Amino acid sequence: MRQLWQRWQALPAVLQTLVFALVFALLGLGMTDFQLSLVSEMLIAALFALSLNLIMGYGGMVHFGHAAFYGLGGYTVAILTLRYGVPTWLAMGLAPFVAALGAVIIGWFCVRRVRLYFSILTLAFGQLLYTVVFQAADFTGGDNGLLGIPKLPFINSEADFYYFTLVVFFVCFFVIRLLVNSPFVLVLRATRENAERAQFVGVNVRRHQLIVFVIGAFFAGVSGAMIAEHNSLVAVDMFFWATSSEPILGSLLGGMYSLVGPAIGGALLIYLEVTITRFTLYWPLVLGILTVFIVLVAPSGLVGLVRRWLGQSVAEDSA
Amino acid sequence: MPQIPIESVLIQVLNGLSSGMIFFIVASGLSLIFGVMRVINFAHGSLYMLGAFLATAVGAWVAEKNLGFFVALLIAPLVVAFVGVVLEFTLFKRIYNKEHLLQLLLTYGLTLILADVVRIIWGGEILRLSLPEFLAGATRIMGRRVANYNLALLVVGPLIAFGLWFLLQRTRWGRIIRASVANPEIVSALGINTQWVFTGVFALGCWLAGLGGMLISGRASVSLGMDVEIIVQAFAVVVIGGLGSFTGALVGSVIIGVTVAIGTLYAPSTAQIIPFAIMALVLILRPWGLFGKPER
Amino acid sequence: MNVLDVQNIYKAFGGLQATNNVSLTVAKGEIVAVIGPNGAGKSTIFNQISGYFAPDEGKILFEGRNIIGLPPQEIVRLGIGRSFQRSNIFPRLTTFENVQTAVLSYENKALHFFRPTRSYNEVNARVQEILEAIGLQDSASQLAGKLSLGDQKRLEIGLALSMRPKMMLLDEPTAGMSPEETVATVQLVEHLAHQYGMSLLFTEHDMSVVFGISQRIYVLHQGQIIAEGKPQDISKNPEVQRVYLGDDVPHQP
Lengths: 319, 296, 253
Fold this sequence. Notes:
The complex is a heterotrimer. Chain A is mostly helical. Chain A has helices spanning 2-10, 13-29, 33-58, 67-84, 88-110, 115-135, 137-140, 158-180, 183-193, 195-199, 205-231, 241-254, 261-276, 283-297, 301-310, and strands at residues 146-147, 233-234. Chain B is an all-alpha fold.
């Protein structure tokens, strides 16, 4: 088992990613429409969690307002297509950049303070956006959201959307993987471990934190745009703080100190949600108990448990 | 901008001050717990909500409205404090030495749990605590009616502030707390059991959250979702005033209460944005808050 | 010419005058110690030189340039490396990654986003070289937080070295070390200073270290410099003996 693992790790990144993508592509052939739709949503949630974990896991910044950028991504698609008649593909292409721009502004305020304050500020600014979107009903549809986002021209079935999602997900995953192994993220991890010392080896800590905040927002924007297209609608809930909790808990469940952990956790949460809400309305309660349990018992998540089993160091967090 | 008579503005300042008093009570609890334990309790808003729901339940149970209010005032915050102590003993104690990331996530999980617990017990109902007659009425000030309850809050707020000041500055327990804030090692070296200081502070902080919730239930309807609303307000207060500072909590609360109340007169739909705008301004001009100290 | 020239700096915290009209100089290649009892204000001076906070008054010139007001990351880049009293490293990064971070930062590669760190051959060769210089090449893949205290302090010196400093500030480099570790560390520091032609400014409580390697000593008491001179003069200075060595010295009747 361990040998197999080592051989797998020796493969080039492109090959690893392709193998994953191929497995999903083959699986897609045998899935029902419901399953295709569910797995698409799981992949989108996985990307959302990955985007957050760049900030939380690698940057050590607990970000309670990530929904803002997910929402910005989704609403960019909805507003551009429905209000301005922009083609869907263009709107979806612009969405991540709008999210990133929002993150430059919000992030500039949030990284002015460290640690606990950062978390407080992200929550507050996230709720600010929620309030604004909720109130500006003439433009955003307020509580009703916006319905009827046009489909991309090449998407005529659940299967089409599934394969489109696969491509988007794995391209993003590959880019995030490159990032994680780059000097940028190594230095980011150093700022997480010891921001003061990082300064004394010449790192501009705030700038580093702001950049990862914006990169994370970019990918959150991608996932927001994807979910808007998947559902053909956006709702103001996309901005709500509870939405921010999903990638946090996904990352925690899967394992913050790893590349794939958050993706697994984020996807798993969607699956659990779909399954559990069939039996009970109290999904947040289940989430809450799960969170407390993981924090107290297995703070490095599922990947941490697997690593312990494989006899690796638990805190290792490069890919 | 609409023309609004000066009397209305002044009355609205009074109303805003009374909201500010509730913000202060909640935010001071948050700040107190942070000051001693260096933990930001996200579940603080949930405890406030719990206090509000408990108050309406106690009020309904006593049924006699003159008495019900005071029984609720006595019982609801105490029950919340007790819940806090139980949480401290079972959960928080385990994470004081862990990284702040895990602390935040734990209290975040508690927020989810408590929100659903309240939903399970009380459902989605919208409740309100009945007031005793002398508080239910209104008094004419400058020809306009001001709810007696709001005037009462203007008395209660400063009383609580004075009580906390007295407790922290003039009692032995307060001296121990202040010493723990400054230097936890020294306190344990003196042979004082810090565990009990922590538990006591936590209970007091939660009691304040419960009190805030109880007080709001006599003024506004109580419903799910008020937990997040208050925690965001309380965060704005501590960012503006500076975490860990009582004066800061008081000033921040008053600023937010009053500006939102006046903003509501002029532009009701955008008034909710005011706290964020002030917060952003403070962050630009004085990032560590009006009364906070720059952290290192 | 003096590498470092601190001129009449003052720093107060609340009512406490932590630094009171302090002036000191370090020449190129010189090894200078600052000694004084606990609370004399040694770390405060280091913090001001390294940009942790600015003095209330006075000048700090590094190679003739006033560095007051620059943030730490820029002062480091000018060539003032620093190690800390408590070991101050990146605990959940490997020893190699610790030094790699510093070297990447020094070479302005911290904002490279897509190339794998392992493909930076020159950077990694330099990391290896530094690890060998501080004798930690065998612990390269260990998590730094799991190293012994002595090794963590060596690693700290390694982090400072990565910035190719012209001068190093060492705050109690041997604090908490066993006698063997202390000797090894002192030899390392002295050796590195000679090898790279660095100036050293250090604080130290262990007098054998201070008198063993320093060429000049400043004595600090209650935020003020009360004496300055060569080790042999300092050890004979009666005022130094009174305030600093205190009870260790028998009082004259």
